[in-house]
From TrEMBL:
It is a multi-pass membrane protein. This is DUF1232 domain-containing protein. InterPro entries: DUF1232 (IPR010652). GO terms for cellular component: endomembrane system. Keywords: Membrane, Transmembrane, Transmembrane helix.
Amino acid sequence: MPLDITFTLSDQDLEHFQAIVDKAKAAMESDNNAQQIEDAARKLIDEARSSDLPEFISDRLTKLQVVINMLGDTEWQLSADDRKRVLGALVYFCNPEDIIPDSIPGLGFLDDAIYVEIVLKELKNEISSYEEFCSFRIAEENRRRAKNEDPHVNREEWLADKRAALHARMRKRRRNSAMSIRW
């Protein structure tokens, strides 16, 4: 029988997470560290998939995959500022000494799972825009194949308009968002 547990993070709780993020960001200031951040998030996802973690933790950690895909998708073309924002949201996962050390069996990833929820909420505009872009790309490829057209011909042209519209919408929604967390 499943059991739902709900809890609320107070402003003080969020500030605690933010302090850890700020400390990790200070240690990861150079562009060379962007790859370290991506690698740490990928490692966390791999560990979640290969470990015998509780399902509620594993499910949340694997939700980071879309964020990692967004960073690595060359056709999505995140701007430098947007990329920095996404990496800033992931920097927490670079810290092996986070709130609960990952080495503690069963519970070590609990804080990471909580933080994933914060990341997903903070990046909801980026994620929804990226998911729409991916859906459009697949649908357009399929449409072109159905018409016996090569989906790679003029690919950048047919992606550019959709990408530009989604990037603009993403930024507008973010500006209008009232989130108090700062990355």
